[in-house]
Amino acid sequence: MEPFWKNKPLAAMSEAEWESLCDGCGKCCLAKLEDEDTGEIHWTSVACRLFDAGTCRCSDYGNRLGRVPDCVRLTPENVPQISWLPATCAYRLLAEGKDLYWWHPLVSGRPETVHEAGISVRGRVSALENELSEPEEYFAHLLEEEP
């Protein structure tokens, strides 16, 4: 029998199936800066104030949308429109008709493979957003490319 993500569209997934698609990389929790003229996205190593850099998970996932006004709740409807989702994101991959990578926990059977493969931001967060007081401070944390 094939795994659910190979034969079930995103919109038909149960809440548990949907949530299991998150590989725990933490990339979506990094602050991104958008060039107003070009729309280009620039990644930073600054994470959301609720981000636990050790586990690469939200420290208050159930309440994140109320506590962080600009937190984006992914849905089957909005995933195709979110240009900043990482190229390795399971939600994006499946929306584009692609398969999951070998290191995804659903494929490997182990949550640590995303970190072992160097895909996650574990060890690469330089600051949390609540540690910065001025918007200009984000520029010191710009990354050359998508993490």
Largest sheet: 3 strands, mixed
Order of helices and strands: HHEEEEHHHHE
Multimer state? single chain
β-strand percent reads 5-15%
Based on CA inertia axes, which overall geometry fits? globular
Helix/sheet category: alpha+beta
Determine Rg (CA atoms, Å). 16 Å
* Span of the ends, CA to CA: 34 Å
Number of strands: 5
Regions with little confidence, pLDDT below 50 for 5+ residues: none
How many structural domains can be distinguished in the coordinates?
1
In helices, the fraction of residues equals: 10-25%
Strand order of the largest sheet: 1-2-5
Mean pLDDT reading: 95
Tally of contiguous helical segments: 6
Protein name: UPF0260 protein NYR54_13295
Pfam families: CxxCxxCC (PF03692)
InterPro entries: Puta_zinc/iron-chelating_dom, UCP006173
Family: Belongs to the UPF0260 family.
Can you offer a commentary on this structure?
With 147 residues, the chain is an alpha+beta fold. The protein has one domain (4-140). It is 19% helix and 12% strand. The chain has helices at residues 4-7, 15-20, 64-67, 90-95, 105-108, 113-116; strands at residues 30-34, 41-47, 51-52, 57-58, 127-128. The strands form two sheets. Strands 1-2-5 form a three-stranded mixed sheet, with no helix packed on it. The chain has a two-stranded antiparallel ribbon with strand order 3-4. A hairpin with a 6-residue loop joins strand 1 (30-34) and strand 2 (41-47). The protein is globular, with a radius of gyration of 16 Å. The termini are far apart. The model has no long low-confidence stretch (mean pLDDT 95).
